[in-house]
Amino acid sequence: MGWLISVAGAILVLLSLRDMFHRIWHPSGQGTISRLVLQAVWRGTRLLKSRSEQTSVIGPAALLAVILTWALLILFGWTLIYWPHMAEGFSFGSSLNPAQRGDFADSLYVSLVTLATLGYGDIVPIYGWLRMLAPVEAFIGFALLTAAVSWVLQVYPALARRRVLAIRLSLLEKAGTAGALSTLDSSAASTLLHSLAEQLAQVRVDLTQYSETYYFREADVVSSLPAKLPYVLDLTRAASRSARADVRLAAAVLDGALHDYVTVLTQQLVEAGEDLEESLGRYAADHGYAT
User: Where do the structural domains in the chain lie, given as residue ranges?
Assistant: First the structure.
C-alpha cells in the first residue's frame, strides 16, 4: 500500500512537469492542467461587476494561479513519495522525538523545505534511494522558479506586440483610413496593408504559443485587440474594391492573415460564429466590448 502512495505522488510530480513543459517550452503552448486553471480564473472573474476590476486582476491572477498549481502538485506529489517511508527511512534530529514523528505533516514539511532548497537538516533521508531523490526535488524546485520567471518574460513581450497592433488600428480608424484607401498612392496603400498582415501574423504566432495571453484584458479600448480587430475587416473590404491590382493583392493577404488568426481563436478559445464578422464579435464580447 505504501508503494502505491509513493507511485501516486510520482504521477502528480510528472503531471506537473509535463504541463510546465507543454505550457512554456512546447511550440503549441498548451498544457491541460494550466488550461483548466486559466479558464477557471477567467470565468471566475466574470463575477466581478466592474470590468476595470477584471482588467486589473485577470491576467496576472491567472498566471499566478497556474504557477501555484504547479507548485502544489509538486509539493504534494513529493509528500506522498516520502510519507510511507517517513518512520524508518528518515533520521530525525536530536531535538525531535522519533517516536512522535513520521506522520503526513512531517512528510509535507520535508517536501516543502526540500522544494524551497532550504535544507534545514533536522529530518534527513537515510535510505539510499531517498538520499538520491531528495536532491532531485530540490532541482525541480529551482526549475519551477526558473520556469515561472521565464514564462513571465515570454508572455509580456507577446502582450506588448498585441497592444501595439491594437493601438495602430485605433490610430488608423481615427484617421479614417478605410475610407481614404481609394485615394492613397498605390504603393503606400499596399505597403500599409502588408505591414498590418505581418503584424497580425506575429500576433497569431504569439497566440498559438502563448495562449494564456488571451486571458489578459486591456485597461482601455484603444489598446484592446479584441475591440479593434473588426476594423481590419473594414480595411480589407475597402481595399478589395480598389481598381489597383497590388492593393487588391495586399487586401487578400491581410484578409488571409485575419482568417488565420480567427481560426486559431475559434479552435482553442472562442466559440465560432456563422461568419467571420460574428466570430470577431464574440471575441470582442468575451473581453467586455460590444460590437
Answer: 2-147, 155-286
